[in-house]
Amino acid sequence: MTKARFLVLGAAAGGGLPQWNCGCRNCVAARDPLSGLKPQTQSSLAVSLDGERWVVFNASPDLRAQIEHNPCLHPRDLRDSPISSVVITNGDVDHIAGLLTLREKQAFTLYATPALTDTLRQNPVFQVLDPAFVRQTVVQLDTPFSPLPGLEIRLFAVPGKVPLYLETADLQLDQETDQTVGVEFRLGARRAYYIPGCGSLPDALATRLDGADLLFFDGTVFEDADMIAAGVGTKTGRRMGHMPIHGAGGSLTALSALSIGQTIYVHINNTNPIWQAGPERDLVEAHGFQIGHDGMEVTLAANP
């Protein structure tokens, strides 16, 4: 029976936990070994069917540390890597900067949509990925492909925006284009999803997710104004392209209305109160949802 291993390499949003320049309640706790809150790296997921070959979804700036913290990703020979491929879901710095870590003449395939491929090609720093070793493959939306033998996935548009460094005066939010995508995994009749960034949950997306066996979903902020309330920023979650967990139009209520076997929040901002015990975390767990963390692993078996 085919089994897929889903390994959370990084559960935090951009900047990680603690963020280098932040003294918020969570960051202070994450720096204190006695607090019980462990540091978390930036958003990334690894998936394997055999434990030998892995595909990494989003190459975070913390990728080198993530590899070292997970022995299944260690080299097995003089020059080697179990990472066979990398898939990018948007062009945010916290999802592409780690590609620069993979520049040491190691073969792998990089999958991205046309828009995200253009983003990488227009930035000359990514030319360090030697095309003699790194094959860049353009993937169209809703077209099945296999980043690992036997693993079929699809990329699909979810509401989002362009990366911060591409924003202009006419910025549009909640655009459904190939700039921000989710990942659908199909294992026989079973389905899993990875959506680390999502601005809202329209009916079409809810219909797609209904009946899923496993969902990793955007948990950036608890309330839309988390960062404002914490005194560390001026933008709401929605302005950054992320729907809140709680409040009007929040993901907790919307996803609870669907039939999903297991829902796990990832891409959690350093200011989000669900990192620690309290009413916000209690509410999430009361709905049967889980808070992702570095090293968390979930196995999903295909139906016989």
What would your notes on this structure say?
- By secondary structure, the protein is of the alpha/beta class.
- It has a single domain, classed as Metallo-beta-lactamase, Chain A (4-Layer Sandwich), CATH 3.60.15.
- It is built from eight helices and 14 strands.
- The chain has helices at residues 25-30, 63-69, 93-96, 114-121, 203-209, 226-230, 251-256, 279-286; strands at residues 3-10, 44-48, 54-57, 83-87, 108-112, 134-138, 145-148, 151-157, 181-187, 190-195, 214-218, 263-266, 290-291, 297-301.
- The strands form two sheets. The protein has a seven-stranded mixed sheet.
- The longest helix is centred in the middle third of the chain and has 8 residues, at 114-121.
- It is globular, with a radius of gyration of 18 Å.
- The model has no long low-confidence stretch (mean pLDDT 96).
SSE arrangement:
Blueprint: E1 3-10, H1 25-30, E2 44-48, E3 54-57, H2 63-69, E4 83-87, H3 93-96, E5 108-112, H4 114-121, E6 134-138, E7 145-148, E8 151-157, E9 181-187, E10 190-195, H5 203-209, E11 214-218, H6 226-230, H7 251-256, E12 263-266, H8 279-286, E13 290-291, E14 297-301
Parallel strand pairs: 3-4, 4-5, 5-6, 10-11, 11-12, 12-13
Antiparallel strand pairs: 1-2, 1-14, 2-3, 7-8, 8-9, 9-10
State mean pLDDT (0 to 100 scale).
96
What is the name of the CATH class? Alpha Beta
Helix content: 10-25%
For the record, the count of structural domains works out to 1
Structural class of the secondary elements?
alpha/beta
How many β-strand stretches? 14
Number of helices: 8
CA gyration radius, whole angstroms: 18 Å
SSE string, helices as H and strands as E: EHEEHEHEHEEEEEHEHHEHEE
CATH homolog superfamily? Ribonuclease Z/Hydroxyacylglutathione hydrolase-like
